[in-house]
Design a protein that fits this description.
The structure is a single chain. About 25% of the residues lie in helices and about 30% in strands. The radius of gyration is 19 Å and the shape is globular. The protein starts with a strand and ends in a 17-residue tail after the last helix.
């Protein structure tokens, strides 16, 4: 399995915010922005792995600036780090006012994804090749974040809960 360059999976999603994306005050719902963040991360993950990838975690997202109806929103995403079957994607959200041309940084988040095989089991994925100083800095920072995430996960006892479906007879 050959390593891939960071630039091979980098993407930018763009969408105009419409009234259906907003609350009555004209602000775009944070949940809609989070959906764009997750979509961008999932696309980058799939482009890198050519596998079904599921979201394992989303680091906190602070909304630095509001987004309004009529704004053009950008979700800029790229891989920061790859482990055996998981990877971290960084997503930056920006908004542009199409009337003034003003760009604002809305927020950023780091997401972890796990690549799955045909049986929905984690599968080995290609490593990444950081190409720029910025890529190398992001790689090192992501490596440290991963260690923190793993420590948190180890401190919790995760157990798969059985799904029990009860069917009652109709009388």
């Amino acid at each position: 399995m050959e390593a891939k360059r960071v630039s091979e999976s980098r993407i930018e999603l763009t969408q105009v915010m419409m009234p259906e994306h907003s609350n009555p005050a004209g602000n775009v719902h944070g949940g809609y922005i989070l959906k764009m963040v997750d979509q961008a991360g999932a696309i980058v993950s799939a482009r890198h792995t050519h596998r079904n990838c599921v979201t394992a975690s989303v680091d906190r997202m602070d909304f630095i600036s509001p987004v309004y109806v009529g704004n053009l929103v950008f979700a800029k995403a790229s891989i920061n780090y790859v482990a055996h079957s998981s990877l971290e994607v960084g997503v930056r959200i920006e908004a542009e006012c199409l009337i003034t041309g003003t760009h604002t940084h809305v927020g950023s988040a780091y997401l972890s994804f796990v690549a799955l095989d045909e049986d929905d089991k984690p599968v080995k994925i290609p490593e990444i090749i950081p190409e720029t100083e910025e890529d190398r800095r992001r790689y090192e920072e992501a490596k440290r974040r991963r260690e923190v995430r793993l420590q948190k996960v180890r401190s919790h006892k995760h157990r798969q809960q059985p799904c029990i479906v009860r069917v009652e007879k109709l009388k």
